[in-house]
Specification:
Pfam families: Cob_adeno_trans
Largest sheet: 4 strands, mixed
Strand content: 5-15%
Shape: elongated
Distance between the termini: 65 Å
Helix content: 40-55%
Strand order of the largest sheet: 6-5-8-7
Number of helices: 8
Keywords: ATP-binding, Nucleotide-binding, Transferase
Number of domains: 2
Protein name: Cobalamin adenosyltransferase-like domain-containing protein
CATH topology of the largest domain: Hypothetical Protein Ta1238, Chain: A
Number of strands: 10
Length: about 250
Amino acid sequence: MKVISESFLRELFRKEIPETFRVEEGQILTPSAAQLLGERGVKIIRDEDRASEKLPEVRETAGDIPEPQYVVAGGGMLTSKPEHMTQLRGNCLVAKDHVRIILRGRLDSLQSEILLVQGKAHGSGLTNLVRDLGDVLAQARAVMRAEVLEEPLPEGLIMGLGAAELRAQSHHPKQYFGVDHLLPSFTMGEMLLTLNALRSLVREVEVAAVSAFRAEFGSERPDIIQALNRMSSAVYIMMLREATGRYR
């Protein structure tokens, strides 16, 4: 095989992840494949590097060589964590502008924004809206946990609605709320405009997740992508409830 791709490695590692992976002379390891090996803690061994093994051995005492503490995604090990890097998982380091780290930052910002909207709703006496926003906050936290720990994301309810119900109500407001789709306008009122801004932010986080988990023929985390999509539907339903006076 001339080119070693990420998809080839994922299929190869489906049953077992080795400690080392050999790249023969003349083979090309794609950047995404190299990153995957680093993330999985697999040491890359290249045939062209073997010549260096014939160099005279430099003997040093164990105390002279610090024990590596971190694995760098894409290859290499470090004894300490540089300021421009952070942990992707365990002791695996990536740059802070890695797509997964960007997603985590967006999820953190989303949670902060939900809390601000909750505070505004509480100040306006909209108890039921505060409760519904709490469901969205819980889902955002569940997404964050599933991403960081690389666990499956359990299906959760928002406002007592499952994924199919959220999609149905947000796509057919006339049937459920007796109104057409809302067209954002400055005349909507402060709470509706605030909810609309939150809905837009959820969509931006969804795009970041698509980028973070893009695979060659789909997504590595369709559960997270769907959860974020349904969260934006949930916030839109909140807008419809507010517009039709159901929170008042």
